[in-house]
Design a protein that fits this description.
The chain is mostly helical. About 75% of the residues lie in helices and about 0% in strands. It has a single domain, classed as Orthogonal Bundle (MetI-like fold), CATH 1.10.3720. The relative contact order is 0.14.
Length: about 300
């Protein structure tokens, strides 16, 4: 176990460095000059050059990256080129909203998705199973932006039950969370069903049936206990994805999370915020995956991670 954890930590740093290099490079390939956007169209060429030198944008890109990386390691993530606010403040302030949305969305995915999957597997071949499978395929096929627009039209504009934009109260989380969970519920439902049906065909289940155990007892004690282990891993990965911020969902609902912050920063060519936000998202996602892998090992001691790495 410790050997596996150390190896995973050894992969962690190169992954983050790779993400930082790619992000730093791609951000500078975005069309548009951030200096001209900040100063406006009426700024003189001399003022533009002075401000560009102050930001260090006149230096070679590899020099800019080294300087930026050293500052990031020291904890100095810079300031926003647009608002002049500290990048760390903007990221952690917006991240709190994303955490709320992620927790609410995970509650929906884990409860509804697992329930659909278990019922479909238990009633395999029945009309209930076929109906739930249809709903799963339907939910899987709907893009997030389309689901969000449909939810806004029905529940915000027509029924006026929930607000379409903003944050701060639980009612502001309803529509974004259900939009974000549409794909997750469908995927977890299908994965749960498939995992449970795979366990049903195992020899130990046949042995339990031969001993005369009731179907309900077999499902509760043997099938669910073993069949839900892969689902736990996928739920953890989805939570990491939710924590990373759903750019499309947060933008549609103007939800002030880290995904919306990154999107608006890209549009404003705010280099420092984009770089910091994406690097922070990568750290969160990699950390979540590491925790999930370790948790999975504790849940199923039979797994030998050393052979997989």
């Amino acid at each position: 176990m410790w050997k596996y954890i150390l190896k995973r930590l050894g992969y962690f740093i190169p992954t983050i460095v790779g993400v930082s290099i790619i992000t730093f490079t791609l951000v500078r390939l975005i069309p548009g000059d951030p200096v001209e956007i900040v100063l406006g169209q009426h700024a003189t060429a001399e003022v533009v050059d002075i401000y560009r030198r102050q930001l260090g944008l006149d230096r070679p890109i590899y020099i800019q990256y080294i300087i930026w990386l050293k500052r990031m390691i020291r904890g100095d993530w810079g300031v926003s080129m647009i608002s002049n606010a500290k990048v760390t403040y903007l990221i952690f302030h917006r991240f709190m909203y994303t955490v709320q949305l992620a927790i609410f969305s995970m509650a929906i995915v884990s409860s509804i998705g697992l329930l659909f999957g278990v019922i479909a597997a238990y009633k395999v071949g029945s009309k209930i199973d076929k109906g739930l499978r249809f709903l799963s395929i339907f939910g899987w096929s709907i893009p997030s932006f389309l689901a969000g627009l449909v939810f806004i039209y029905i529940f915000a504009l027509r029924l006026k039950l929930f607000p379409a934009i903003g944050a701060g109260e639980i009612k502001h989380l309803i529509l974004p969370a259900f939009t974000l969970s549409t794909w997750g519920v469908s995927y977890i439902g299908r994965m749960t069903r498939g995992s449970l049906l795979e366990i049903v065909g195992q020899d130990f289940v046949t042995t339990a049936q031969a001993k005369g155990l009731t179907r309900k007892r077999i499902w509760l004690k043997h099938i669910l206990r073993n069949g839900l282990l892969p689902v736990v891993t996928m739920l953890g990965m989805q939570f990491g994805w939710f924590l990373g911020g759903s750019f499309i969902v947060e933008t549609i609902f103007s939800f002030p999370g880290i995904g919306f912050l990154t999107t608006t920063s890209v549009l404003n060519r705010d280099y420092t915020v984009v770089q910091g936000a994406i690097l922070f998202i990568a750290i969160i996602y990699c950390t979540t995956n590491l925790v999930v892998d370790i948790l999975y090992a504790f849940l199923d001691p039979r797994i030998r991670y050393e052979k997989r790495v």
